[in-house]
Amino acid sequence: MATDTKAEVYQPRLNPFVFPSETTIRFVLLIVSVIGASLFIYSVLYLRYLEKQGELELLFNQAKECLSLSFPTPSIQNLEKLQVASNAFEQCKQPVEREFLKAAWLAVGGVGIVLSLATIIYSLFPFFMIRLEGMAAFDKQSAIEVHLKKLCTEMGIAPPPIFLQKPISRALGGRAFGSLGQYYVVLPAGLIKWFSQDREAFNAVLLHELSHLRNKDVDKTYFSVAAGCAFVIAALIPFAFSLLSNSGAELFNASWRVIVLVLLVYLTVAAVVRSREFYADVRASTHPGSTALNRVLITFLKPKHPGWQTALISLLEHLPFVRHNHWQFAFQFHPEPSERCSKLQKTDGLFQIDFWIAFGTGIAVTVAYDGIASLIISILRTALTHTDAWLESLVAGLVFAPLVVGIVGIGVWRETFASLIHKTHSVKAGKLGIGLGLGLILGQFLSFENITSSWQALGMEQLNPAIQLTSLAFNLLWSFLLLVSLYCFFKWVAASAAAWLSVAISSGFSRSLYIGGLIVAGIWLSLWFGVIFLIQNARVLLLTANSVEMFFSLILVLPVAIAYIALQPLTLIALITLWAFPLSAWLRPHRLHLTYATSLPSWVFLEQTSHQIDLPTQNQPQLRSTFITGLINGLTYCGLLLVIRLILRVIIPESVRDADWFKLILYFIGYIGFPALMQTVVAVRIARRVKYLNFIHGLFAAFTAGCTMTLGVLLVNLLFGGTINFQFAWNIFSQIVNWGALLALLAMLIVTSTLRKIDLIRSL
């Protein structure tokens, strides 16, 4: 029986070179990991030195005696007593902090040694490879040399590398290496035979090696290996020798942290070396002479006789490979042939960022920052005559955020791009946020600050079980806040990327597009990290005899702290950015109307096709209807406020209306609370009605309503004999808009999550 079959339309491969490669992202993560691990080890070495000299115990005893004499029991109700306790704690810990500052400077010097040694090893790699393996140059007039230079011209590599032969090797794989702008490609004798016996296979192997040069990953790869070697020589070996004089709890306390950090460095080096192979395969496949590339990948698995210089890169390659074992794959320096063929045929996998990359980023940046936190704060206090906790926390955010956004944020943009074109998978941005948050939390346990912070070193946490219990409760609440906020933040990054990429695909992509998006995300995340670290610093208030009282007091004063944050101009700008940045993509002069399928530009794909390829139909933002809904909501509040003020004027005596308590109730309930509640309601309505960028539309509706409500409050205040000045207008506007946005975010998150779970249950 005959059946009708629909011809499958050929889908060209996505171009993975539009964005920075996964190799670049992992290389940055490696450098941060090496810096963080080195900072930790050198700081611990200095601490062990003080311990042997007997100075550390003397410092701690002096600080404990100081605290026992001058540290009062703080109370959240008595701000003067709280300030006295804070000042006493700062004064008593100064001698200890000075030693930790010296440790930070020593650690920075140690990092300089590690990176300098890595640079030396990296620059000497080619010299030792050529000398020890007996490599020799080709005859410049030979047919193979002419052919190789022709391939370089076709690949766009200028100037061409120096081609070397390795007569004593019968291996079939070449290798591209070099440093400082001078690159080489070595051809073993086994591969040279293919030049006359199997020219297609020979071209495939050489195009792969030349692709490493074209992708500019040779320097990243060999500097990664050099950094790993330098870390072992200059940091890990001295630490191992220091353990010979320690035992018991001290040995375990530092050793398990170093083991985790060493594992992170190793896995990151392996990831850099492994990921570059995928990109070289893809780059080589774009050349017409790479027809045998799949055949070579399947039959030519590994070099049979690797030289000494590839021993580190091939460390685990001789272990039995267990199929579908993710961790076995993570420890390997070369990907499996089946995985390479899969990525070569469909490049979508190169756009996905792994959960463990985000997790490792959290560990690396936390350990690296905590290693020099005291140094950064000291420099800040020296440069400025006056600093406060908020400024110091903001500086911490400025250190964290660029690294986080530069590594994880680029990955989210890349994954969003692939999802937008092929609709093959959803972007796991929230999952990446959770991974990053877990890494940040674990990084604090691994950091030098965790084992040597002043309050722990002084033994304050061991005063009684209540302190330990309240500290645990505080840390759990703080960790929950961090995870939820990072989950939402990276969901927003993905939504913003989808909005801007949809427009860019039609109007023409430029590098500044994703860079601008990452800058906006970095600024926003810097501000939020400043807030989250400021909250974490409040933990020191729990290290007192009345820690339980202080814990509940901190929870009660949280609304006051939020009200203070809501009055800050930066908070207003940050909350406006949440909806303004993604929606502004449609305000460009050449904005894209994505109601129908749109033809995709050629740069999206690796291959040119004869038929038109369309972008899957996208939803349009509903800006007009959202604006009108928010405006109606705001006008409704203005009408209700006018009616309520008229009723109050009639039924309440003037003496009561002039009382301060009545004005406070009217201000906080009528002018702040009720408007924020109405903004929350309209935001949730819009978020449920709009399917595309629903949270962002909800925030836009809340902002529109908040602006309208602010005008209504000011006009009604004038009508009833009040006055308007800038401070009053700012307080009204900032608190209405900011409180409305904060409550709207929380409500939309709860409502949409609940409805999603209900729909899931019903579908089952």
TrEMBL record:
<feature type="transmembrane region" description="Helical">
    <location>
        <begin position="732"/>
        <end position="755"/>
    </location>
</feature>
<feature type="transmembrane region" description="Helical">
    <location>
        <begin position="699"/>
        <end position="720"/>
    </location>
</feature>
<feature type="transmembrane region" description="Helical">
    <location>
        <begin position="103"/>
        <end position="125"/>
    </location>
</feature>
<keyword id="KW-0645">Protease</keyword>
<keyword id="KW-0472">Membrane</keyword>
<feature type="transmembrane region" description="Helical">
    <location>
        <begin position="664"/>
        <end position="687"/>
    </location>
</feature>
<feature type="transmembrane region" description="Helical">
    <location>
        <begin position="476"/>
        <end position="501"/>
    </location>
</feature>
<feature type="transmembrane region" description="Helical">
    <location>
        <begin position="389"/>
        <end position="413"/>
    </location>
</feature>
<keyword id="KW-1003">Cell membrane</keyword>
<feature type="transmembrane region" description="Helical">
    <location>
        <begin position="256"/>
        <end position="273"/>
    </location>
</feature>
<feature type="transmembrane region" description="Helical">
    <location>
        <begin position="555"/>
        <end position="581"/>
    </location>
</feature>
<keyword id="KW-0812">Transmembrane</keyword>
<keyword id="KW-0479">Metal-binding</keyword>
<keyword id="KW-1133">Transmembrane helix</keyword>
<feature type="transmembrane region" description="Helical">
    <location>
        <begin position="627"/>
        <end position="652"/>
    </location>
</feature>
<dbReference type="GO" id="GO:0008237">
    <property type="term" value="F:metallopeptidase activity"/>
</dbReference>
<feature type="domain" description="Peptidase M48">
    <location>
        <begin position="176"/>
        <end position="347"/>
    </location>
</feature>
<feature type="transmembrane region" description="Helical">
    <location>
        <begin position="27"/>
        <end position="49"/>
    </location>
</feature>
<dbReference type="InterPro" id="IPR050083">
    <property type="entry name" value="HtpX_protease"/>
</dbReference>
<protein>
    <submittedName>
        <fullName>M48 family metalloprotease</fullName>
    </submittedName>
</protein>
<keyword id="KW-0482">Metalloprotease</keyword>
<dbReference type="InterPro" id="IPR001915">
    <property type="entry name" value="Peptidase_M48"/>
</dbReference>
<feature type="transmembrane region" description="Helical">
    <location>
        <begin position="355"/>
        <end position="377"/>
    </location>
</feature>
<keyword id="KW-0862">Zinc</keyword>
<feature type="transmembrane region" description="Helical">
    <location>
        <begin position="222"/>
        <end position="244"/>
    </location>
</feature>
<dbReference type="Pfam" id="PF01435">
    <property type="entry name" value="Peptidase_M48"/>
</dbReference>
<feature type="transmembrane region" description="Helical">
    <location>
        <begin position="513"/>
        <end position="535"/>
    </location>
</feature>
<keyword id="KW-0378">Hydrolase</keyword>
